[in-house]
Design goal:
mainly alpha; 6 helices; 75% helix
């Protein structure tokens, strides 16, 4: 996995410095690292750091919520974030109840926190860091910190 991440980093560095035009790269990613690099980095961090009951729903939330919220935002739907929040909460809750040994109230609390953070990372745009990376890392780190220091 680390070798894959290093290869992606090398390719991105060459792409940015040599100004290569790659199909599928968005125009605003021409002079900075692309979403592919940020997603690969986030997946690597999630894979290394998180147990399955946190990592799997985080990756599934990225895979389902990111495109869903993007499409709903483009259609100018009101409360598009609410759809993402409900689906993300359901994903986190199902996997935490299924794979962890926590009590139900802990699963609900952590699922709510993780899904809120996941949706916030998708709705708030950052110029320097892609939302794919943030949607993977922020909820994972928050849940891991809560598990370590609170529960």
């Amino acid at each position: 996995m680390l070798i894959f991440l290093i290869c992606v980093l090398e390719f991105e560095y060459i792409r940015v410095t040599k100004n290569w035009q790659i199909p599928g790269i968005r125009p605003y990613e021409k002079y900075r690292f692309s979403a592919v690099f940020w997603t690969a980095t986030g997946l690597f961090i999630c894979y290394i750091m998180c147990p399955e009951y946190i990592g799997i729903p985080t990756v599934l939330s990225l895979a389902w919520i990111d495109p869903l919220m993007g499409e709903l935002r483009n259609k100018r739907m009101n409360y598009f974030w609410l759809y993402g929040l409900c689906i993300s909460f359901s994903i986190f809750l199902c996997f935490m109840l299924w794979l962890s040994r926590m009590q139900i109230w802990q699963c609900i609390a952590l699922s709510l926190i993780a899904s809120i953070l996941c949706v916030l990372c998708e709705t708030k745009k950052n110029y320097y860091i892609d939302d794919n990376f943030l949607m993977l890392v922020v909820p994972s780190i928050a849940v891991m910190c809560i598990l370590t220091f609170v529960f």
